[in-house]
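Our preliminary data section would be incomplete without showing what the modeling component actually yields. Below, a chain of 373 amino acids is followed by its predicted structure, encoded as tokens that our downstream tools consume directly.
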Amino acid sequence: MLQKILFFCFLLLPLISLAQEDSITARELRKERREELKQFAKEADTSYYISYHSQVTGRLYLSRKSTSLSLQNVSHHQDLNYRPNSSLNLGIGATYKWITINVAYGFAFLNFLNPKEELGKTKYLDLQGHLYGRKIVIDIFGQFYKGFYLGPKGTATMDNSYYLREDVRMNQVGLSMQYVVNNRRFSYRASFHQNEWQKKSAGAVLIGFESYIGNVRADSTLIPNAFDSTRAQKNIREFIYYKTGPNVGFAYTLVYKKHFFVTGSLAGNLGFGNNTIVSDDGRSQNFGISTSVFIRAFAGYNSDTWAISAIYTSNNVGVNPGDVSTKISLNISNIRLNFVYRFPPPKKVRTGFGVLDRLEKKIKDAIDYDQLK
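Predicted structure:
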């Protein structure tokens, strides 16, 4: 059923974009656009970037989300890398004003080359919300995975095969917030949502905080006997952690001839938290300090009506469980290829969207909305 719904959505998308011809005249559109840019100039330097706040930014995209687990053995200089068997997804979405909705599904025809049997089964729900405001960036994470394999092939096995662990579960919920310094000249939205257009190169310092809570557990030891027999005897089968702390980073967009852009962002976090190990020795707790690294990379082409971009985000959440010879990190990644087209919504649709305008006004009246948009 879901495949049929998405299929019809793909068929209707071109019709929605064509509906603009009967919904608004070119003169009305130019007048509204001039007024929109006039108002936006009060908030940002329009010689650096402009906004398409009142237009629909529709997108067709391919994406692959994944959350992997790494157990780093410091004393032996070897790592155990648990990876999920995730799928390549095809989706559609749209951004209008401050609302973004994306729907994607892993169709079979996109994943026929994926060796599912060789890599085992993974059941997962990967929720990633990236809210790119003009001044504030908010990232919300919810990862719920069951079933992993060890990579590369041959790790912890006697033959050249994958070590499968369909009993391993990983659950994590996290939040990251950052304030974008120099937001009058630098736009994250232009790179991620494409509902803005960065015309000149600019950068910004990022300041904020992050919090994560989660656990990793299995029916038996997470460290295979073939990999490390001594540590496997301890039967370490669960990690529970919580961490929070400040982050700081920097982002920069390099623009070539107004249209082509490359954006890079790097932020580091120093987290303080409580960590617990469950093994045959019982439960051991430790208050520790660990680091996290959040990398974002964007590249593509942007213009007044359409855009194309490649997006890569990688959030490496480090956890120190207290055992100095073992460190844990969870890597939350997202790779996406976007095809974007902007158009003014038809009049009937804009009337329906009026509820968003009224909600936006209520929020603005209740709080300092300029800090969020």
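The mean pLDDT is 83. DSSP finds eight helices and 15 strands in the chain. Preliminary results of this kind motivate Aim 1 of the renewal.
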